[in-house]
């Protein structure tokens, strides 16, 4: 007996797997505390990070340049700090004429994946020296902001991502590579990119990037912050001289801060900022003397707090579009449209299975996911992304399933796999088949606690062979945590 495919053709059309996400998301930081407007970040910690970068350079030939051992050692050290703090880190390698280089990208679990706020700094130095102001300062300040966010227990409305770029000194190669390889959909998810390249120059100025492609909201937030602290600032047109350039050309809002390099401080600038008129903002710019001694700690401290302010502020900014993610009450269902009563809403996968066709009963309501039942070679999936809070002490996927089949015997011809996809790893939690088909709805559940702090995809994957239908009907799904 075969059930023709047309028997249950549905008008629903589902988009490609992965394109939809649950609208209920939680910040990975744990407590739902609202982010403070201006955290006071530790310049002592940043100075320790700079000492670490200096030690790496000293131990590896005096620099941290592309293709030299000091670069990879710097990256490994930053990565280990982020991993220990709970970030999901990714290393992207690429080749340059000076040798292999690497970008380090760190994602804080949680926040709305459709709204990404990104903060970056280049981690490489020139070959001439250890690159402590250029750009140990930006690298260490962004690292400290990321670590402080992890430690804060705040949950972010938006998704926070941090990046340390390779081979900026070779011509923005790392950030250009990242953007050129990032799928368009992921580029479109980035609402803001903040860049920090030299933030502790020894004869400092306070230059705010004013070469934005779209809107000045972040530039204005930065200048308002400086003004509120009584710190004079000037605009600078960075002219594509740092890693925000590829974000800016794509049309992403950007801004950044620069404390000055090879150009000379005027007397008007020395009057408002102090320091030495007629001298370069950084006399050791791109030189061997750009060491741990080549820093103005006051500028570093002020700019660190500015970076903290920007990250905290934009973590919670409303970029529009979707319902704000909220921390669900303990015991709440993290799945969107778990009983399919809103059709395909919230679910990705194959067109058709989510249906109110009466050929099979729903457990509750009238809609269900009817996978299989074709009696011909076929594969169908439905899936949904969900974030398991990092603070969960229990997490469970549950669903009701009813199966009926035209097959007989003890060979599994038709199967439904219940799977969790985490990064590139797919784990099958359970396989149902025609063997033991049961036309009474029963509930099954599996722990998802192994995925706490992660955003995973819950997936139901059906495969049928060439003849004799098996229908796997799902209803009333849930992911709950406590
Ligand atoms: N990108 C330059 C470097 O790393 C520094 C710079 C930053 C210059 C911002 C202008 C504006 O050498
Ligand atoms: Zn430089
Ligand atoms: Zn630089």
Overview of the structural elements:
With 482 residues, this protein is α+β, with helices and mostly antiparallel strands. The protein has helices at 43-59, 69-85, 132-152, 173-181, 184-189, 217-228, 245-250, 267-273, 297-315; strands at residues 88-96, 99-107, 112-122, 158-165, 190-196, 207-209, 234-236, 254-258, 348-349, 354-355, 368-372, 378-387, 395-405, 415-422, 425-433, 442-447, 455-464, 470-481. It has two domains: 8-315, 3-Layer(aba) Sandwich (Aminopeptidase); 348-481, Galactose-binding domain-like (Jelly Rolls, Sandwich). The protein has an eight-stranded mixed β-sheet with strand order 1-2-4-3-5-8-6-7, with helices on both faces. The chain has a five-stranded antiparallel β-sheet with strand order 9-12-17-14-15, with no helix packed on it. Helix 1 packs across helix 3 and helix 3 (132-152) packs across helix 9. The longest helix is centred in the first third of the chain and has 21 residues, at 132-152. The relative contact order is 0.16. Mean pLDDT is 89; it is low at 1-34 and 323-330.
Name a few traits of the molecule.
482 residues, Aminopeptidase, Jelly Rolls, 8-stranded mixed β-sheet, 5-stranded antiparallel β-sheet, 27% strand, binds phenylalanine, binds zinc ion
* Large-scale geometry: elongated
Query: How large is the radius of gyration?
Result: 27 Å
User: Share of helix among residues?
Assistant: 10-25%
- CATH arch. level architecture of the largest domain: 3-Layer(aba) Sandwich
Mean pLDDT: 89
CATH homologous superfamily annotation of the largest domain? Zn peptidases
Poorly predicted regions are 1-34, 323-330
Order of helices and strands: HHEEEHEHHEEHEHEHHEEEEEEEEEE
How many β-strands, per DSSP? 18
Bound molecules: phenylalanine, zinc ion
Determine the N-to-C terminus distance. 46 Å
> Approximately how much beta-strand content do the residues carry?
25-35%
**Spatial ordering of strands, largest sheet:** 1-2-4-3-5-8-6-7
Q: How many domain modules?
A: 2
